[in-house]
Specification:
Elements (H helix, E strand, L loop, with lengths): L8 E6 L1 H22 L8 E7 L4 H17 L7 E6 H8 L8 H4 L12 H5 L10 H15 L3 H6 L1 H11 L5 E8 L4 H24 L4 H11 E8 L3 E2 L10 H10 L3 H6 L2 E5 L18 E2 L3 H15 L2 H4 L4 E3 L13 H4 L3 H25 L15 H7 L4 H9 L5 H26 L21 H8 L14 H4 L28 H7 L3 E2 L2 E2 L2 H13 L11
Parallel strand pairs: 1-2, 1-4, 2-3, 4-5, 5-7, 7-9
Antiparallel strand pairs: 6-8, 10-11
Helix pairs in contact: 1-2, 1-9, 1-13, 1-16, 2-19, 3-6, 6-9, 8-9, 9-10, 16-19, 16-23, 19-20
């Protein structure tokens, strides 16, 4: 088997609501990584698959919007592959477009004998989800998967695509699959316990059929060419307290591990356990279901690092069986969400910090000049933009307008539309960054610690995206062009208990005025393409003078 991991086919299967939160974290990180790579971004050899009965609809909408904005902004598109299979819809189609789906219609006959499930459970309409009934979840997930995989779409993009990859490998590369989700919920918990064995069984059957091998030969072939990792986390959201008590998260995860099916355990090579004694910071309002309070959390970013870790391992290390990996953040005593406790590779902090500084240039400098507020109806106002004056090497708004009209530059299509898409995408990134910067409450004591954000200054992030209604980022409130300090954005907030803060990785003393002077606007007698100028801005904002390393494992 070749040791060049770049040849491998890598898949991420997001399981349930927490799994898709990890998928969102992956997009945020991979986009930041693409920005650092430059040119057309960085194409990771990762394929994301999300197969669900009911969970994650809101997150899917977010992801689809992000993918669209990646393309529209034309700035360093990460170009990853994402496929979403909503199994409930597939099952519904297969059941002759019926308006309900119950276990009576899809479960094996022995489930309907009244011993395991009540009549109420058997008749419940499941298109709305599992209702946190783990027994229902285990039955529905398995039955729905078998039903849905009979469709052509899922054959080409779900489990069957992975099996195709395994069959075609012929010992020239490995197919590596990460399954990520929560150990405490309904769908994610069920799928993490069942999907490893289902996938391995499917691959063995396909190898026997397509390569005409005996069963033992096929098992050995799959063992060599397929590597599976499970990343199990605590929940990315909370449910309301039951009978006055919050959920015992640690107990639920421990129960899942204790009862992990033997056939799935045998199929898994590496097991990453990402638990934490602080739950995610609580969202201020419930999701559409009114049962979940979702909020991004730093542990999902640790899950992304675990994906990278598994995909980068040598064949020898990726082949280990029953090997648990517990990242630094999940070890006792690391409750505070800071960079040291997260234990992420250095690049994570570097890429996220550089993107934050780049966003400051977008929101404080470019947006006020190039994007008019809805109430501004003067079409000539844009020609007052200093940015355009520098691009066309003229000084007055009249001269700018003349230069633009006499050039081949289409302001709307080449500058304003891509910038609007980029600002929309970066708004979603900044909201995410603000959420993962917070340390939540303790599950057992139901108390919120006095120490809040220790990664990035959440107040500055909220100011940039204009969370206060009717107010946008105003550089005049931050010292103006000469007084605005980029280093302040990446200065870690102090721990409120100890008043200590982690060292800033940026000490450049860069101001907005210095940034605009360093940007190259004009080249070979013509204005440079807007995307090239944006690239310049990113490079200047991301330049560092000091390095600091944290290791994840």
């Amino acid at each position: 088997m070749p040791e060049n991991v770049m040849l491998n086919h890598n898949y991420v299967m997001a399981e349930g609501g927490t799994g898709v939160r990890a998928l969102l974290a992956a997009h945020m990180y991979l986009s930041a990584k693409a920005y650092a790579a430059g040119e057309n971004g960085r194409t990771e050899n990762w394929k994301f698959i999300y197969e669900t009965m009911d969970a994650g609809a809101e997150e899917i909408e977010q992801l689809q919007k992000l993918v669209r904005l990646d393309s529209e902004s034309e700035f360093c598109d990460p170009h990853y592959s994402f496929h979403f299979c909503r199994l409930a819809e597939k099952v519904k189609e297969k059941l002759a477009r019926d308006n309900t789906m119950s276990l009576k219609k899809i479960a094996p006959a022995w489930y309907r004998n009244g011993l395991l499930l009540t009549e109420e459970q058997l008749e419940r309409d499941l298109l709305g989800g599992y209702y946190r009934d783990l027994t229902l979840g285990s039955v529905v997930s398995s039955a729905a998967m078998q039903c849905a995989l009979e469709t052509e779409e899922d054959r080409n993009a779900g489990f069957r695509a992975i099996a195709d990859s395994v069959v075609a490998s012929n010992n020239t590369y490995e197919t590596r699959v990460v399954m990520v989700g929560s150990g405490i919920g309904g769908e994610g918990r069920t799928n993490l316990c069942t999907h490893p064995a289902m996938l391995r069984k499917l691959c063995v059957e396909r190898v026997m059929e397509d390569l005409r091998m005996e069963q033992e030969q096929a098992k050995a072939y799959v063992e060599q060419n397929l590597k599976i990792a499970v990343i199990m986390t605590g929940s990315a959201f909370r449910f309301p307290a039951m009978n006055g008590l919050d959920q015992d998260v640690a107990g639920l995860v421990a129960g899942t591990l204790r009862n992990f099916p033997e056939d799935s355990a045998e199929a898994v090579n590496l097991f990453y356990l990402l638990e934490h004694d602080q739950c995610p910071v609580q969202a201020t309002k419930a999701s559409d279901s009114r049962e979940q309070y979702k909020h991004a959390h730093a542990i999902e970013l640790v899950a992304v690092a675990a994906m990278e870790d598994f995909f980068s391992l040598s064949t020898e290390h990726a082949s280990k069986k029953h090997c648990p990996v517990i990242p630094h953040y999940s070890r006792p005593g690391n409750a505070l969400t800071n960079w040291e406790n997260l234990g992420l590779p250095e690049e994570y902090r570097q890429y996220l910090s550089a993107r934050l500084r780049f966003d400051a240039a977008l929101f404080y400098w470019l947006r006020p000049q190039l994007i008019q507020a809805p109430e501004e109806n003067d079409p000539d106002k844009i020609y007052e933009a200093e940015f355009l004056a520098r691009m066309f090497k003229v000084k007055t708004p009249r001269k700018v307008k003349e230069a633009v009209l006499n050039s081949s530059v289409d302001l709307e299509e080449e500058i304003r539309k891509p910038l609007k898409a980029l600002l929309a995408k970066e708004t979603m990134f900044l909201e995410y960054l603000g959420e993962i910067s917070l340390t939540g409450k303790n599950w057992e004591t139901d108390s919120t610690p006095a120490y809040g954000s220790t990664l990035f200054n959440t107040e500055r992030i909220e100011e940039m995206i204009g969370k206060e209604i009717g107010k946008k980022a105003d550089i005049r409130e931050r010292g103006g062009m000469t007084g605005f300090q980029f280093d302040e954005l990446t200065m870690c907030p102090a721990d409120r208990r100890t008043e200590q803060r982690e060292e800033n990785i940026y000490n450049t003393r860069l101001t907005m005025d210095e940034l605009r002077k360093q940007v190259k606007y004009f080249e070979h007698g013509n204005p440079r393409p807007f995307q090239d100028i944006l690239r310049d801005i990113y490079e200047i904002c991301s330049e560092r003078k000091e390095r600091r390393h944290y290791g994840i494992f």
